[in-house]
Amino acid sequence: MSATTRTVRRSFARRAGESAFGVLLLVRYLLLGLLTLLIVVGGFLGSWDTARDAMSPGDLPQGRLTLAACSDDACTGVFEPSGATVALVQPIAREPGETLDVAVYEDTGEAIRTGLPGVLYSWLPLMGALLLASVVIAGGLRMYRVAAATGATALAALGLTFALWI
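Above: the chain's sequence. Below: its structure in token form.
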């Protein structure tokens, strides 16, 4: 006896439902991918103005800032070589008498740190965005290894930033 195979044709409704489900999955991946991209680009743009000047001060005057007085959110001190009094806005209180490498915005009298600690500190918004993006990557896109690598990289950079900043 020979076995005959019988092809059963699926109904139109079932084929349409399977196609619609595939389209919904594709739309989900596209929207979550765009959300992830938006988060990372927002972090990059939030960091770029300060990071650009911390990495390459260009025309900004560079020198050392000797701290004279510090509060919880800013320190003021004398900028060498000009001798002007400038402010360094920061969330970590420092001790008067410390000297830091800075670049100064002449129009506002505000200083930003340069060197590796200043560069890492200026990229903090991007690091936070990468942490948030790793949650979206893991939870929405189900790409667990990529999310773990993204989150671990951001956490390592955050840890290094605060280790060098203090």
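The mean pLDDT is 89.
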